[in-house]
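hiii so um. not sure if this is the right channel but i have a protein structure encoded as tokens and i wanna go backwards to a sequence. like what aa goes where. can anyone help
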């Protein structure tokens, strides 16, 4: 008998909407309108809570972002942190491989990281991460 195939899990609307918005930005993540970013985070945070995403699953990612934020504040040189920013993508992939609930966050953050080419872009990435986690926690996420 043939092996039963796993049904494809549909990509939730909010993940698609955020990724599409980010992919359509033509001049880096800094052009992500802040009101759209907050509106998206407001929907996405509770969705991640529904998926039972626990903050400790993304703690290494959050810690890395905060460390880069501090490094950038100290040096003021984007070029010194750019490589580390791009290397956040494998950290997300690892978190997603360990827990399915981290996959949507990984998809959104990977799209966002691809649009980070300047200090201003990175600052918008930090705002996105902080907003998503804030709404996740507000929803009762741990």
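sure thing!! here u go:
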């Amino acid at each position: 008998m043939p092996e039963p195939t796993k049904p494809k899990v549909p990509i939730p609307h909010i993940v698609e909407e955020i990724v599409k918005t980010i992919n359509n930005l033509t001049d880096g993540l800094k052009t992500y309108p802040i009101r759209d970013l907050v509106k998206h985070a407001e929907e996405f945070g509770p969705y991640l809570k529904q998926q039972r995403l626990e903050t400790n699953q993304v703690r290494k990612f959050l810690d890395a972002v905060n460390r880069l934020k501090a490094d950038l504040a100290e040096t003021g040189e984007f070029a010194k942190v750019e490589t580390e920013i791009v290397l956040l993508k494998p950290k997300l992939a690892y978190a997603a491989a360990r827990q399915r609930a981290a996959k949507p966050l990984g998809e959104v953050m990977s799209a966002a990281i691809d649009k980070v080419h300047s200090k201003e872009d990175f600052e918008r990435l930090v705002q996105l991460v902080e907003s998503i986690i804030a709404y996740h926690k507000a929803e009762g996420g741990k």
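oh and Residues 54 and 72 are 27 Å apart (CA to CA).
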